[in-house]
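A further point concerns the way the authors explain their paired sequence and structure data. For illustration, here is how one protein appears when written out as sequence plus structure tokens:
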Amino acid sequence: MQKIARVLRSDGTEGGVLLGFQGVSPDEIDLKEPVFIYDDGLPVPYFISNLVRKGQSKAVCRLTGLRTLADSEELVGRELWADWDDEVDGDDPAALEGWTVLSETGATVGTVTGYEDIPGNLCLYVDTPGGEVLLPFHEDLLISADPDTATLILRIPEGLL
């Protein structure tokens, strides 16, 4: 399962929700496939019956089973998950959360805690001993990525640490 969005707020009185997408674009959502919201530790399937894009990473949606404002309010703050990992581009920066970042000398820099998709400049939040830093994540700076050990070796420009 892959986290694809968060319910930001309810929308209207008939069960609509505003979703903030993470790692995928609203255009990539397959309306024929279910999405899941965990309830009491179990994934509950929902289908998106209507999706209207709002900006780059948000959309107003109708989820099956939500009929009232109270229904949608109950889901605010919850995450949407999809079970289509194989269909999503493998370059998803959200999948790097928890990976260890090493410098090109092999020294441990820290752990990836998130990312910032600045247009034209994807950056990773890395928790270092000196605090959280934002490092550029570009193919020219990536030396290697090992999914077996969840490590990234990056060429880190001078002055960023």
